[in-house]
Amino acid sequence: VQLQASGGGFVRPGGSLRLSCVASGSILSISEMDWYRQAPGKQRELVARIVNGRRTKYANSVKGRFTFSRDNAKNTGYLQMNSLKPEDTAVYYCNAIGRRDSFTPFLSWGQGTLVTVSS
Q1: Which of 15, 31, 63, 98 could pair with 11 in a Cys bridge, judged by C-beta atoms 3.0 to 4.6 Å apart?
Q2: For residue 112, what is the DSSP state?
Q3: Angle at Cα 46 formed by Cα 42 and Cα 48, nearest 5°?
């Protein structure tokens, strides 16, 4: 299973971006998708999680600003990021956990997409 992350870019503080994470390949189901980020000199941290396409969890630092949604038919997750702050600057990575078939689980990571928030 391959994951393709996109949507990063440069934005001014207060601006918005939408990241996408598309899963492709042999997929029976996806139970969980996550977005992580890693800022320079810092450890990778969990930003948002969506379980079974509905239940979401967010890091305290992004609650109320970021929204994670899924289009199950397209095996795609979207991270809508509003009111962006300079401290949101990081490389954002998505992952997905699911099953290729009834017997084979998978855990896949996408490549990172850079988000830069600066005035």
Answers
A1: 15
A2: P
A3: 140
Strands 29-38 and 55-58: unpaired
Rounded (to 5) percent helix, strand, coil in the chain: 5, 60, 35
The Cα–Cα gap between 48 and 46 comes to 6
Check residue 44 and give its pLDDT.
Answer: 96
Taking the C-alpha atoms of residue 57 and residue 23, their distance in angstroms, rounded to an integer, is 20
Q: Are 23 and 40 in contact (CB under 8 A)?
A: no
Q: Residues 17-48: pLDDT tens digits?
A: 999 999 999 999 999 999 999 999 999 999 99
Task: State how far the Cα of 41 lies from the Cα of 12, in Å rounded to an integer.
Answer: 22
Contact call for residues 32 and 96 (beta carbons, < 8 A): yes
CA gap 99, 27 in Å, rounded: 6
Side chain identity at residue 78, one-letter code: Y
59 CB-near residues (< 8 Å, 6+ apart): 45, 46, 47, 48
Q: Which pairing describes strands 55-58 and 105-109: parallel, antiparallel, or unpaired?
A: unpaired
